[in-house]
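Lab notebook, bench 4. Still working through the backlog of constructs that have no structural model yet. Next entry is a single chain of 96 residues. Request: give me the structure tokens for it.
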Amino acid sequence: MVIFVRPRSRRDEKATLLVFLDYLRDAVAAKLAGVSEEDARRCLVPSGTSLLWLVKHLTAVEWAWFLYSFAGETASRPGEAVSGADTIDGVLTAYR
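Model written out:
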């Protein structure tokens, strides 16, 4: 079991934001530790949400807020739909 220690605030807002984002990304990734590819795709709630979809959604949301809204990135927003080619490792790599 991984134990996460809440990070401390840094000197400036940007550094604090970055350290908290890393902490939260690690916590999300830990939820997929030991989960099979099949179980990561499984939808257990009426909304159809799966663990893989959730991580892809978080990736798209971070892209929208940080790269598009704040940095003015012009590349296309990552998709949220889970495809047959998606794997836990691939989705987590894109998220990080």
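Notes after review: Residues 76 and 94 are 14 Å apart (CA to CA). DSSP finds four helices and no strands in the chain. Flag for follow-up if needed.
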